[in-house]
């Protein structure tokens, strides 16, 4: 997958253009889920621009609301507190009146009750990448992710494999699965848009 870098908080600057969404009947929120490094934010932003919809990165949304980075919330208040916040903010973004594209955090689908909310308010897409592709995508980002910062390449691959196996049952609950290995971003966006017209 190419170019996983994305500008943060771009959801504020992507207006909703209803004229582009008329062919997508019974539109709900479009939610992208998957492991970190799968390209949820990049694909979400590109998809939202193509469809004229607002884009929300849930991690950015939480960080802005709490005025703390996700890492700082984890460090200062612990994972249990973060997951509670995450579920509360997930409810908030899902209940926004306008249609939008939402990129979840890697662990969001594992929260108890999260998929009940997602199935009620959203059409969900699992961006499925291999452990090898995910590891390659995450290598340059290790310094910015405390949980990965001390892992060498071999340890990173093992870490991703373990985490992925733990979360797979949740990710597989998505309405659609999009295989992303060796695909360009525009191909993935096109595939998602095609699924939405079916």
Q: What would you say about this model in short?
A:
This protein is an alpha/beta fold and 198 residues long. The chain has helices at 40-51, 58-66, 70-77, 79-94, 114-121, 131-138, 153-171, 185-197, and strands at 29-33, 54-57, 100-103, 122-128, 176-179.
CATH class: Alpha Beta
CATH architecture: 3-Layer(aba) Sandwich
Distance between the termini: 25 Å
The count of domains is 1
Strand order of the largest sheet: 2-3-1-4-5
Strand content: 5-15%
The fourth-level CATH homologous superfamily is P-loop containing nucleotide triphosphate hydrolases
Poorly predicted ranges: 1-22
Helix content: 40-55%
Structure in words:
The protein is α/β, with parallel strands linked by helices and 198 residues long. It has one domain (10-16, 26-192): Rossmann fold (3-Layer(aba) Sandwich). The chain is built from eight helices and five strands; from the N terminus they run βαβαααβαβααβα. It has helices at 40-51, 58-66, 70-77, 79-94, 114-121, 131-138, 153-171, 185-197, and strands spanning 29-33, 54-57, 100-103, 122-128, 176-179. Strands 2-3-1-4-5 form a five-stranded parallel β-sheet.
């Amino acid at each position: 997958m190419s170019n996983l870098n994305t500008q943060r908080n771009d959801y504020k600057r992507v207006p909703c253009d209803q004229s582009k969404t008329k062919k997508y009947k019974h539109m709900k929120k479009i939610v992208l889920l998957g492991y970190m490094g799968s390209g949820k934010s990049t694909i979400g932003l590109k998809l939202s621009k193509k469809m004229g919809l607002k884009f929300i990165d849930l991690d950015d949304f939480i960080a802005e609301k709490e005025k703390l980075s996700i890492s700082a919330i984890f460090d200062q208040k612990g994972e249990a507190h973060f997951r509670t916040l995450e579920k509360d903010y997930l409810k908030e973004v899902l209940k926004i009146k306008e249609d939008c594209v939402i990129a979840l955090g890697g662990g969001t689908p594992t929260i108890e009750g999260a998929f009940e909310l997602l199935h009620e308010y959203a059409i969900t897409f699992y961006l499925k990448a291999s452990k090898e592709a995910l590891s390659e995508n995450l290598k340059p980002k290790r310094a910015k992710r405390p949980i990965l910062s001390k892992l060498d390449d071999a340890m990173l691959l093992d870490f991703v494999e373990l985490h992925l196996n733990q979360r797979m049952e949740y990710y597989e609950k998505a309405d659609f699965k999009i295989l992303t290995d060796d695909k360009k971003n525009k191909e993935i966006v096109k595939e998602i848009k095609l699924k939405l017209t079916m």
